[in-house]
Amino acid sequence: MPSERRHALQPKLDGEDLALPAPGTTHHLHRLTGQFHEQSREALYRRSIEPRVRTETGLALSVASLIYAMFAISDYFYTGLTPEFFLLTTMRTLVVVSCLTLAVVIGRRGNDTPHVWLHALPLWILATGIILIVPLRPETLSTQVPAVVVATMAFYLLIPNLLPVAAVASLYLGIGFLVASVMAADAPAVVVMRTTLLLIMTNGVGFFTLLRLEKLQRKQFALLQEERVQNRQLVEEITHRRSLEAQLRRLAEQDALTGLDSRRHFMTRAEAMLRRSRHAQAPFCLFMIDVDHFKAINDTWGHDQGDRVLTAIAEACQRSLRPQDVIGRFGGEEFIVALPETHLKDARMVAERLRRQVSELTVMEAVPAHRLTVTIGIAGVRDEEADLDDLIQRADRALYAGKHGGRNRVVSHEGSEEAPSTQP
User: Fold this and answer.
1) Number of domains into which the chain is organized
2) What is the enclosing helix (H) or strand (E) of 329?
3) Catalytic center residues
4) Buried b (16+ CB within 10 A) or exposed e, 30-49
5) Do 202 and 267 fall within a single domain?
6) How far apart are CA 155 and CA 173, in angstroms?
7) Please, which residues have CB within 8 angstroms of residue 117's CB and are 6 or more apart in sequence?
8) Is the pLDDT of residue 15 over 50?
9) Claim to verify: residue 104 and residue 208 sit in the same structural domain
10) Most buried pick, 70, 97, 111, 266, via CB within 10 A?
């Protein structure tokens, strides 16, 4: 697979499940190839750079082909219109066409994991084309040595490829060039020795430079993937914590049995409503609700039945109230309701509607004839100085007045009351 040099690695692997090794093992790379020891991780890495490799390979092969073709000018300069010139031109044309064709094929086939030979083939074609220049232009051997050096570095650093592929192709180029120099150009031993040392140095520099790049970029890939997984875990942890916070908030704000506001949360909301009513000089009422004979229900039929009664009454209250009204469980069998922008007369109407709906409930299967009732005490804002605690105390006094007056009735703090329904 082509290496990802010259650009910062930014893998985009949508839908990939990135399983990371244990801490401390993310950088296990082969010492000579720079590849991951884990085949699955190496394959994942190669897939991540595949789109860029296609583009870079096509561009690099096009540039290399153009440069190789341009040297036809020097062929003409050295050989003139001779058979050697036409052979060189034919060879250069074949090399250029082959490389450009492979560039197109690689651009479409992409991944080199199953097609390593396809990515290696352009290097071997270019190397063969450079080697064949020696027997066709032996007199220019000294000028061909720099071209071989440049081509070797290009194999390592210009044309994307795996390090083993680039190394083998470069060795083929160097050895082939030396053999051709001795056999076709009859190069002196000192020239061969000097060229050999130069090519060894070139291959060494190219090999270790590409090895370092391969390792650095795979380490970067591993770190980026690890960071991605850690970020995902962090997001999951944050989501989990927010869920826990929401649950705790619900536990603090809602009564666990009835789902109504808890006493503390109701007081907070009601206090804010009362402040707004004062500021707008709007009416505000509050009433307390108490379930009649609730202790007898618990003592006679058990606390499970008592809980069912409280839940049913809470649901009836919510159905009877308006959207702007707020209801909470004040404690035990008592409920409390805040009615913003509501006059005392309208509050009595809401309370009476609620009282009637409760009396129509049938939740006592064991004693279907038993009729549930509630007593409701109402208090309204009389002046701007009234606070919530004062309202609650006045509504509570009205409630107890109703309890002592026979239960199952609505009583305002001023002492007036609605006509009670039939007593249970």
Assistant:
1) 2
2) strand 326-331
3) 333
4) beeebbbeeeebbebbbbbb
5) no
6) 10
7) none
8) no
9) yes
10) 266
